[in-house]
Design brief:
Helix content is 46%, strand content 10%. The chain has helices spanning 20-35, 54-66, 90-103, 113-125, 141-149, 197-207, 223-233, 263-268, 273-281, 295-301, 316-328, 332-339, 349-359, 366-377, 385-394, 396-409, 413-424, 429-440, 448-454, 459-465; strands at 7-10, 39-42, 106-109, 155-158, 165-170, 174-179, 186-189, 212-216, 239-243, 246-247, 312-313. Strands 3-4-7 form a three-stranded antiparallel beta sheet. Strands 1-2 form a two-stranded parallel ribbon. Helix 6 crosses helix 7, helix 16 (396-409) runs antiparallel to helix 17 (413-424) and helix 16 packs antiparallel against helix 20. The radius of gyration is 32 Å and the shape is elongated. The termini are far apart. The relative contact order is 0.09. It binds glutamic acid (GLU) and zinc ion. Zinc ion (ZN) binds next to loops. The site of zinc ion has 5 residues, from loops.
């Protein structure tokens, strides 16, 4: 039988900015669904009311769309399993919790946080892995009534059967086996009545028809608990694949130290979504597909069997390589839209076009566009002492001739250079370096001829004449 059409999801908690690790998980999930003509859905895990905010949620959706992802079901687009925000699904969780309670698969636990902490410490000091001691597991009805009468608000704990094994085949990490004796009874409903992450996350995957869960490696050890919950509710269990962590170039977990770590920061610096996608695609996912890939080509090239188990290293220099390719691949219109505010204001379309044509090959970030706009349209550039020395060395006659040729030739570089060569006998770098320095203030940059054409009409003459006799 062929595999069913995959349904994947991204299930972020709106408690902070979208970071690269989560963005990559979202991308992989989206690609996997897209490749097979499946569905990708967005579910918002906002049960932690204290930490979730609407502005994080808006930013998250905005960043995902910027990355080029779309979803067939989600809070903003609806769908058959709506609602897609967990904060709107509490009645549903309560219903499933009640089923667990009625069948005895879960039981009320009256232990206070202080008692649990004490027990945890005792286990640790006895050299045992800390897990719930089972204090409330076998309370009689009378004992429960007694605790309720004392005003103790219970949590609901899932009863893990001892002496068993939970096995599953992670499609990244391979065969997994967990002894239930190591798991311990865990909370499915908190004392305040809210559903715990393990629980609603698993129930929602089942109710939303998710077939493949791709998520961070940090959730691998949660999976056996979730499989137990789904099993006792008679709900389908998805296939799980845990994606390895992203670390910085020094091998430590990704953080601020390694550069901009949120999608929003990268956007603000002018990185293109194409560059970010192409980098993420190759982080922890080996592929023989070379070069900048468009979304469909990327979906076709995605192979979940090629997801790696070892941490993947993020290197901002690699992102810059993709950025260079992505900027060069932009159409002129798209370049103009990307460079946006960095482009010179108050210039006609022809002037803007000439400027873009001149600087495009040399820019990777909008800041560089801004800097070149200043060189081309700003005041005559000041020279460093070293540059000044080079220019003075070329001599007044050199610039006399160059300035006159600029005015006479409509800023044609070949004519300007020929005149300066004739006046001084200079050629090669000795000819072009003083010209470039006098015209731009810099000894490097885009090809000089188009740069001259992009300048306001009198600018080249006015810059050159500064160094004439
Ligand atoms: N809300 C969870 C997180 O952001 C989702 C984990 C999962 O994908 O299952 O970590
Ligand atoms: Zn208890």
């Amino acid at each position: 039988m062929p595999d069913p059409v995959p349904v994947t999801r991204f299930a972020p908690s709106p408690t902070g900015a979208l970071h690269l690790g989560n963005a990559r998980t979202a991308l992989f999930s989206w690609l996997y669904a897209r490749q097979a003509g499946g569905r990708f859905l967005l579910r918002i895990e906002d049960t932690d009311a204290g930490r979730s905010t609407e502005s994080y949620l808006d930013a998250l959706v905005d960043d995902l769309r910027w990355l080029g992802l779309d979803w067939q079901e989600g809070p903003d687009v609806g769908g058959p399993a709506a609602p897609y925000r967990q904060s709107e699904r509490t009645a549903l969780y309560a219903d499933f919790e009640e089923r667990l309670r009625v069948t005895g698969a879960a039981y009320p636990c009256y232990c206070t946080p202080a008692e649990l902490e004490l027990s945890r410490k005792a286990m640790l000091s006895a050299g045992k892995p800390p897990r719930y001691a089972g204090t409330c597991r076998e309370l009689t009805a009378a004992q429960r009534r007694d605790r309720e009468a004392r005003g103790l608000a219970p949590t609901l704990r899932f009863r893990v059967q001892p002496g068993a094994t939970v096995a599953f085949d992670d499609f990244v990490f391979g065969a997994q086996r967990f002894a239930t004796d190591d798991i311990g009874d865990f909370i499915v409903r908190r004392a305040d009545g809210s559903a715990a992450f393990f629980f609603c996350n698993a129930v929602d995957d089942a109710l939303m028809g998710v077939t493949h869960v791709l998520r961070g490696e940090d959730h691998l050890t949660n999976t056996p608990r979730q499989i137990l919950v789904l099993g006792s509710l008679g709900l389908p269990v998805p296939a799980y694949g845990h994606v390895s962590l992203i670390v910085g170039d020094d091998g430590t977990p990704l953080s601020k130290r390694h550069g901009a770590m949120s999608v929003a920061e990268l956007r603000a610096r002018g990185y293109l979504a194409t560059a970010v996608r192409n980098l993420l695609f190759r982080l922890g996912h080996s592929t023989s597909a070379r070069g900048l890939l468009a979304p469909d080509a990327m979906a076709a090239a995605f192979d979940r069997r090629h997801l790696g188990r070892s941490p993947s290293r993020f290197d901002i220099a690699q992102l810059d390589v993709w950025q260079r390719e992505a900027v060069h691949a932009l159409s002129d219109d798209a370049f103009e839209a990307w460079a946006g505010a960095a482009l010179p204001a108050n210039r006609g379309a022809a002037e803007r076009a000439a400027f873009i044509a001149a600087v495009r090959p040399n820019v990777v970030f909008p800041d560089e566009v801004r800097a070149w706009a200043e060189v081309v349209f700003g005041a005559p550039p000041p020279l460093s002492d070293a540059a000044e020395a080079v220019v003075r060395d070329a001599g007044g006659a050199f610039f006399d001739a160059a300035a006159a040729a600029a005015a006479a030739s409509d800023n044609d570089l070949a004519t300007i250079a020929a005149a300066a060569r004739e006046a001084t006998g200079r050629k090669g770098p000795a000819l072009y370096k003083p010209l470039r320095l006098a015209l731009t203030g810099l000894d490097h940059g885009p090809e000089l001829a188009p740069l001259l054409r992009a300048m306001p009409h009198d600018a080249p003459h006015d810059r050159l004449i500064r160094y004439a006799r």
